[in-house]
Batch of 3 targets.
Target 1
Amino acid sequence: MTFKDTSTQGAAWGAVLAMSLCVAMLIASEFMPVSLLTPMAEGLGATTGQTGQAISISGLFAVTASLLITTVAGTLNRKGVLLGITALMLVSLVLVALAPNFTVLIIGRALLGLCIGGFWALATAVIMRLVPADDVPRALALMYGGQAIAAAFAAPLGSYLGGLFGWREVFWALVPIVALNLMWLAAALPSLPAEKRGDFGSLLAVLRRPYFARGLLAAVLSWGSAFMMFTYLRPFLEQVTQVDVTTLSVLLLVLGGAGFLGTWGSARLIGPRIAPLLKLPALVMGACTILLLFLGGSVVGTAILLAIWGAMNTAMSVIWMTWMSRNVDDAPEAGGSLMVAGVQASIMLGAVLGGLLLDGISIQAVLAGSVALAVAALALIGTGRGLLKPNQTTAS
C-alpha cells in the first residue's frame, strides 16, 4: 500500500490539523450530553437514563454508517465525502439545539451518528495517505489531539455554560465553529481520489483474519468499559462525590486536560512494539474505576483518579488505531470501518447497559459493570501477541 500521495506534499500537516478540529467538534457534539445529562432530561421531560440513550442512538447510526460508508461513497473523492460529513454535522447540531421534544433530539443524534461513523471509518486511511508511514503514529496523535481538546474543554464548558445560559445555548455555540471547520477542510484537504471501491466482501475478508477479529473484540470491550463509566460520570459526581456545578466543571476540566498528556505521551510511547501497549487502557482505566468506588466521596481523590483515567482515555485511541494501521495496512478503509463499527457498538453497549444499571440498581452498579468489561478485555488481550498479523509477531 502507498501511504502517502505525492499530491499532498505541501498540504499534509495542515490537512491533519483541520481533521483534528473536526475530531474535536465530533467528540464535543457526541458527548456534550454527558455534561448536560441532568438539565437535558428535565427540559425534555425524560429520565436521566433515557436521556443517556441519546448517546446510544448516535452510536447505533454510527455503526451503520461506518459499515456502509466505503460502499455508498464508492469511487467518490474522499475530500468531498469528508466535506459532506462535516456539513451534515452542522445540520445535526441545529436540530438538537432546536429540539422541542425527545423525538427531535433523537433525530438530530441519529444524523450525528452518521457523521461520526462516516468520518472515523475514513480518517485513519486518509491519514495514511497524507503522511509517510513512519509519521502515521504522530499524525494520529495530532488528529486525536482534537479528542483531547474536546475532552478538556467541551464537558466542563458545557456544564458551566449550561448552568448559566441553558443546555440549548451550548449546542448553538458549536454551530459557528463547525461552519469555520468546514471552510478550513475545504481549503486544506488535497484531492483524495478513491483508491478502490469498497464492498461488504472486503469487510468480511478482513474480519475473517483471526488476529483482527480477536483485537476488534478486545477493543470493543475496552471502549465499552470506558464509555459505561464516562456516560454516567455526572450522576456519579453529583450523587457520590456530591459536587455543585462549579466543582463538577472543574473535575471535568481535570479529566479532559489530562487528555493532552495522554495524547502527547502516546505519540512518544509507541515504537515498533505495539503488543505490550494494548492492555494498558483496560488495565489503567479499570483500576481507576475500581478506586472510584472506594474514594469517590473525596473530591481530591476523585480528581486524581479522573486525571489518570483521562490521560489513558486519549492514549487508548492512538494505541488501538496504530495497531489497526500496522496490522490491516493492506485494507485500511475496511479495517477502519470495522474498528469504528466496533467502537460505536461499545458506546451503545456502555450507554445502554449503564442506563439500565443506573435506573434499575444504582450508580455504583454502573461502575461495577465498567470494571467487569475491563477485566474481560484484559483476559482476551493477554500478552497482545495473538492480536498481531503473522509478520508482526517478531517485532511485537
Target 2
Amino acid sequence: MTWRILITCPPMLASIESCQERFKTENLEVVTPEIVQQLSEDELCQIIAEFDGVIAGDDPFTAKVLEIGQKGQLKVLAKWGIGVDAIDLEAAKNLGIYTSNTPNVFGDEVADVALGYTLLLARQLHKIDSAIRQGNWLKIQGTSLRNKVAGIIGVGSIGAAIARRFKVMGMNLLGYDVRTIDPKLCQETQLKQVELHQLFQASDCIVLACNLTPENYHLLDEKAFNQMKNGTWIVNVARGPIIDEKALINALDSGRIAGAALDVFESEPITTENPLVKYEQVIMGSHNSSNTREAVLRVNQIAIDNLVRDLKRASGENQ
C-alpha cells in the first residue's frame, strides 16, 4: 500500500533529501510545498483531503481543517516537534484521526539558544559586533551573570536543560511549573520551585520554556510585568502568545523590562510593521531555536516512525 503524505515542517523540508530512502522503504508518496513558516487554515482546507497523513509544523490544524481532511482520506497527523497548541486535539480524537508528537527531543538545542540570548542581553555582544563593522570601537559595560536570579517558567526537558546551563554560569535559579519539578533536578542545580508571583518579583531574568495552553495565553501581561523588578530581562524560547506584546512594549517603554530576546512572536513571521522591531533592546529570532542539523535529522526519523505506526494502525495492519 502506498500512502500520500503532506509535509509542512520547514526544518524537515530543508533536510528532505536525507529522508528519501526512508520514504521509499515505507511506501510514502510525499508532497513538499513551499513554506516560509506555516500554511494558513485556508491553504490547508484546499488540499488536506488529498492526503492520508501529514507530518506537520506549526500549521493551524483546526476542527474545520480536520473535518475536511477526514471527509477525504486523512487518517494521521504526526507533529514534528513538541508543541501541539496549533492542533485541535479534541476534534482529531472525535474524528478518529491519530495524532502524535515528538516530546523531549530539543532540550539541549533550545537551552543553548536560551543561554546565548541571555549572554547577548548581559554583554550586548551583537551591538559591539555591529558597531565594529561600521568603524566604531564600542565599549559597552555589561552585566555579570554570576549571582543573578534566573526564573524559568516551564521546567520540563527544555527548562531542565536551561537550568543546568544557568547553574554553570553561577546564577541562582527559581522555577515555576504547574507540576512538581523533578526533585533530582532541584538538588542538582539548587533550583527552588516557587509560585509565579514569587518568580516575577525576585528574578533578574525570566525565561519562558513552557507549552502554550489556554491557561497561559498572555501569561506575561500588564499585571505580570508590573510585578517584576525594574530592569528585568525576558527570554522567550517557548511560544509567542505567552507574551502580550502590547504589554511588553509598555514595559519596555517604562524601563520595567530592560531587554528582551524573542525567538517567537504572537504572529509569525513578523513584519517590519511590528512595533517591536524598532526597539534596539529587543533581540529577535525566527522561531529557530531547535534547528540544528543533528536534532533535525533525529526528529525527522521519529516523526516518520510515528506517522507510519499510526497509518498502519488506521488501516488495521497492526491488528
Target 3
Amino acid sequence: MDRKRRVEAAFSAAAATYDSAALAQARAADLLAAALPALPPTARVLELGCGTGLLTRRLLERLPTGASLLATDLSPAMVEATARLDDPRLTILAMDAERPAPGLGGFDLIASSLAAQWFDDLGATLTRLAGLLAPGGSLLLATLGSATFKEWRVAHAAQGLLSGVPDYPEADALAALLPGATVERHVFTQDYADARAFLAALDAIGARTPRPGHRPLTPGRLRRIMAGLGSPCAVTWDILLLSHTRSPA
C-alpha cells in the first residue's frame, strides 16, 4: 500500500473518534475562518480535506446565503461524516486534493485546514489550486510548520534517533512555493497528560502515518522517548496560514 492509501485508511478509521481529539485542528479552523476574505453574494467555494466538517461548519456560518460550498476529502468515511451537515448550500465529494476532479474551476474561495501537510507535492498542488480560482478569488490554506511537535523530535534526538515526523516548512519557504502568497505563523502548545495521551490523540485523529522510509521503533526505544517527553507534557503546534489572491481579470 502506498503512502497516500495509508493516509486515507488511517483517516477513514478515525472518522468516529476525530472530533473528540481534534483540539488543535479546531483551533486552526478558527484561525482560518477569522481570516476569510469578503465574498460575493453567490460565491463558489471549494474546501479541501474537510474531515468531519470542523472548517465546513465555520464556513457555512460565514458564507452568504446565496453561496455554494463543495467540501471534499480523500477519505470516503470523512466525507460521509461531513455529509451529515444539513445545509442546502453544501455539496460533498470524495476527492484527492492533489488531483482535482475534471471540470472544477472558477472558485471565489478555496480553503483547506490542516490537510496540506499530507500532500505528496505541496508546491505543485498550490500552483494547480491557484489555477482553479476565479479572477480575484482567494486561496486560504492552513498547514503545519517546522516547529510542530518539536518536543517529540527533541526526545528522539536525545536517544540519537530521527523521529517519524515529516519535515514541515518554515513560513518563508511555504510562501515561496506560490508567487504572491503571504504566510502568517501561529504557534501554541497543547497540553497532554503524558506521551501516551499525545500518541493516543494522534491515533484518534488518524495522524500517525510517519515520514516515508521511517522504521518503527523497538518497544524499549519507544518507552525511553516517551519518558523523555515528560508527564504532563506540552507539545507545540506551529500553524502556517497561507493566503493568495488571484489577480482580477
